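Late entry, evening session. Most of the bench is empty. Finally got around to the prediction I had been postponing all week. Sequence below, unchanged from the version circulated by S.P.
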Amino acid sequence: MNQINPYLNFDGNCRDAMSFYARCFEADLDMMPFPQTPGENPKGADDRVMHAALRREQEAILMASDTAPGDFKQGNNVWLNVQCESLDEIERLFNALGEGGTVRMPLHDAFWGSRFGMLTDRYGTNWMFNCESSKA
């Protein structure tokens, strides 16, 4: 296995969330709404996204979709870890994704030798940010 892609589900706001993430990560966004897919779609899903993918340099970095109406269950069991390459990057991403969200642990110098912080964004997605001191 050479890659794992996190996949998020939303309750009708996938388009808004993924557009926000695309701006934060400066990534390209591909989206396919339910009406553009073959076959019968769930009732009430006409304005929902069946699949979305953020891409940088042709690699998928985050994928998501809306659930069928009534199928969404908010949970806190998914955290996405962002391995940052520099202090500038960790600060920029933490601030961008934290806009309108809740900081769970401010960026700080962690005991394992990295700059680290945690937040829940305005869509309820949990993020961890890590930048190794050797890259800072």
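Two things to note before I forget:
Residues 7-66 form a domain with the 2,3-Dihydroxybiphenyl 1,2-Dioxygenase; domain 1 fold (CATH 3.10.180.10).
The beta strands are 7-10, 28-33, 49-56, 59-66, 79-83, 102-109, 114-120, 126-132.
Will write this up properly tomorrow.
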